[in-house]
Design a protein that fits this description.
This protein is α/β, with parallel strands linked by helices. The chain has helices spanning 26-35, 61-72, 75-79, 91-102, 119-125; strands at 3-8, 13-21, 45-54, 82-87, 111-116. The longest helix has 12 residues, at 61-72. The chain is globular and about 35 Å long.
Length: 138
Amino acid sequence: MPYEFYIDRNVETVFIRHSGEMLLDEALDQIEEMLNSPLYIPGFNILRDTRSASLPAEWNYNWFREISPNRVGDKFLRLGRCHAAWGTNSGKDFRIAHQASISDRLSSSIIQRQAFTDISKALQWLDVPDDYKIIYPE
């Protein structure tokens, strides 16, 4: 599981960084670990940074729309009303992140999702202060 995350209660945001080859359910495993953390409060915003990761080949609009919901279960409901930003580093990965963000647009989802190629714009969208420094655990 090549990811790390930390929860900053001061900015009510969870910062997640993936690296290497992402596994098919890695993001869901990370969400479950986050939900079980005593530091996590439903409604915190989320920044998922995959700029240093290779996304699974299976991920596309159909996967997010048809297959993923069966794997997700109630995890997204347990996140509460929040913003979830997904940072990418290529047009191909941006397309995948965008497909994920629109896959449940016509549902009753309470999570607002958006894909970004510029992390500073993602942080701004999440209302994280401009001078905030992301420091992942070592």
